[in-house]
TrEMBL record:
<dbReference type="GO" id="GO:0045663">
    <property type="term" value="P:positive regulation of myoblast differentiation"/>
</dbReference>
<dbReference type="GO" id="GO:0097350">
    <property type="term" value="P:neutrophil clearance"/>
</dbReference>
<feature type="transmembrane region" description="Helical">
    <location>
        <begin position="7"/>
        <end position="25"/>
    </location>
</feature>
<feature type="transmembrane region" description="Helical">
    <location>
        <begin position="318"/>
        <end position="337"/>
    </location>
</feature>
<comment type="similarity">
    <text>Belongs to the XK family.</text>
</comment>
<keyword id="KW-0812">Transmembrane</keyword>
<dbReference type="GO" id="GO:0017128">
    <property type="term" value="F:phospholipid scramblase activity"/>
</dbReference>
<dbReference type="GO" id="GO:0070782">
    <property type="term" value="P:phosphatidylserine exposure on apoptotic cell surface"/>
</dbReference>
<keyword id="KW-0472">Membrane</keyword>
<feature type="transmembrane region" description="Helical">
    <location>
        <begin position="45"/>
        <end position="68"/>
    </location>
</feature>
<dbReference type="GO" id="GO:0051649">
    <property type="term" value="P:establishment of localization in cell"/>
</dbReference>
<feature type="transmembrane region" description="Helical">
    <location>
        <begin position="289"/>
        <end position="306"/>
    </location>
</feature>
<feature type="transmembrane region" description="Helical">
    <location>
        <begin position="161"/>
        <end position="179"/>
    </location>
</feature>
<dbReference type="GO" id="GO:1902742">
    <property type="term" value="P:apoptotic process involved in development"/>
</dbReference>
<feature type="transmembrane region" description="Helical">
    <location>
        <begin position="199"/>
        <end position="221"/>
    </location>
</feature>
<dbReference type="InterPro" id="IPR018629">
    <property type="entry name" value="XK-rel"/>
</dbReference>
<feature type="transmembrane region" description="Helical">
    <location>
        <begin position="259"/>
        <end position="277"/>
    </location>
</feature>
Amino acid sequence: MPWSPRAAFFWDLVLGVLGTLAFLIDLGADLWTASQYVLSGRYLWAALVLALLGLASVALQLFSWVWLRADISSGHAPKPPGLCLALLHVLQLGYLHRCVQGLRQGLLVWRQEVPSQFDLAYADFLSLDISMLRLFETFLEMTPQLTLVLAIMLQSGGAEYYQWVSICTSFVGISWALLDYHRALRTCLPSKPLLGLGASVIYFLWNLLLLWPRVLVVALFSALFPRYVALHFLGLWLVLLFWVWLQGTDFMPDPCSEWLYRATVATILYFSWFNVAEGRTRGRATIHLAFLLNDSLLLVVAWATQSACLPSGHLLQRLLPAAGACFLLGLALRLVYYRWLHPSCRWEPDQVDGTWALRSLEGRQLPQNRRMAHLAKNFFPKGRDEAALPWKGEVNGVL
């Protein structure tokens, strides 16, 4: 028996609370780590932690503000008080405000015995934006912070307790953000089934297992060649930015903010795969995986010639084989997921969702999150008969 919208939103509400708590815990762990560096006299490390945190926060607020202005001007979302909202973003509280707003809307839907179509659509609208912002925060702040902490540990030859806390919260937060983003994409397309428990576990694991070796080798290079890691990142980032530009992204409402999106996607691609173009993704994903694998192997070769410079050399002799095993296992789980668990493997037209959506509108325009709907259509291959269905032209409230 399918879940009612009220029951489904209860679990969405629980996941929203957990996601907000994870964001606050990770923020607290970063500030705690920076304060410990200051107390121990390691001012450069503290400055790097705070710089990464500040740059990611500014980018996150810019995305939130640009989306908000575009949504208000197009009438796709209720109009909030403009001055207070602008002040929240200036104070770097815009993302947290969105999280609180999403939880309030989810609680409103859950309390209603029969939720209205507008409340359901607006709750989806908010949760999709929050999921996307969480993904951006993950790769702009959490993943670089994790790489920095690992590099510091490898360079110093030991680890403090607060560094272990930062590492654990970062790994869990990164994988959770990827899983939450994937779940959000599925909700955009009525014909795609929701992510089940088994598929969620596999998706969580293969992202974690493929990300860990990449972060480790970049941290190795940072520990050995701290003066050149910025050049390495900038060189690869420019190549990836050019690749994203060639794919003709059209995600943001204006050309200037589109370059902010492309720069963010290039940063994500430095660590993990992220699809931005329409069509089959197998070829592009294979090219990206081979590119990162070759770059990681070159970084490992650089470590092999200079490993004596690190006090943690003996530890690395055990970590690198473990990272290789994690990569192979993650690759195997990724193949399993896309072979048997990806929705395109068992796609069937959902006539009920489409006809219900058309009849439920009754001339009333619902909030429409075109951004995530566009990404969802890019991410999931179209079904064989999808184009033939008259209701499949638009998704997520765009009727």
